[in-house]
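Technical annex, item 7. During the second reporting period the consortium partners agreed on a shared format for inverse folding records so that results from different sites could be compared directly. Each record opens with the tokenized structure and is followed by the designed sequence. A conforming record, contributed by the partner at site C, is shown below for reference.
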């Protein structure tokens, strides 16, 4: 299914009010890229809402002894994200945080969703994770989409990502094996079935 086909499906399902699509998948699946393409295909009134703005700050993770696990489900402010989803469903102007990967921190109120934004594409790793408290997100979504990618391909993509961000090959390998891959397997094996599954095999 192409972004244009997915956009057409969303438009066919949507009523007159706001329509929220969850776009989930493991680290390295290409969620941000697909979310951007989907919003472009949907056109005016569509925008991305990233889950990554709810990363705990590195200082918080370090204080809690969790810095080496950054990106795991319990390194996010899930309660804050749930609150945001409730506000987005209710409508009105809603400030959202945005994660700045170049700085490795979230910028609070870095963007604003308004009532003109009818189609919201919420993207994140754990949107469909079938464990508390993540499963409490389910009522906020009108449609769910999951990107299914093989572990080997995800490993390749993540190696490219971390090398591009300045990690050495050894440091990238260690981070993927100790952190990314456990999170990948948790998403692939612990997520609820989505309304649509996009499978990428290479």
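Designed sequence (site C submission):
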């Amino acid at each position: 299914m192409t972004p244009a086909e997915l956009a057409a499906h969303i438009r066919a399902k949507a009523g007159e009010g706001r329509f929220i699509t969850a776009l989930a998948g493991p680290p390295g699946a290409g969620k941000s890229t697909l979310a951007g393409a989907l919003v472009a295909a949907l056109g005016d009134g569509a925008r991305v809402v990233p889950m990554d703005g709810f990363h705990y700050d590195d200082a918080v993770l370090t204080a809690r002894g969790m810095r080496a696990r950054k990106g795991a489900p319990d390194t996010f402010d899930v309660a804050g994200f749930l609150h945001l989803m409730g506000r987005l469903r209710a409508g009105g102007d809603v400030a959202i945080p945005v994660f700045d990967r170049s700085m490795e921190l979230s910028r609070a109120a870095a963007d604003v969703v308004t009532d003109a934004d009818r189609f919201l594409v919420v993207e994140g790793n754990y949107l469909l994770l079938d464990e508390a408290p993540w499963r409490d997100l389910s009522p906020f979504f009108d449609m769910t989409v999951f990107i299914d990618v093989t572990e080997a391909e995800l490993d390749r993509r993540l190696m490219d990502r971390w090398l591009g961000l300045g990690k050495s090959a050894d440091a990238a390998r260690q981070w993927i094996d100790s952190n990314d891959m456990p999170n990948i397997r948790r998403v692939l094996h612990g997520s609820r079935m989505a309304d649509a599954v996009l499978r990428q095999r290479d």
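The first strand starts at residue 19 and ends at 24. The beta strands are 19-24, 46-50, 94-100, 105-113, 119-124, 143-149, 196-200. All partners now use this format for quarterly exchanges.
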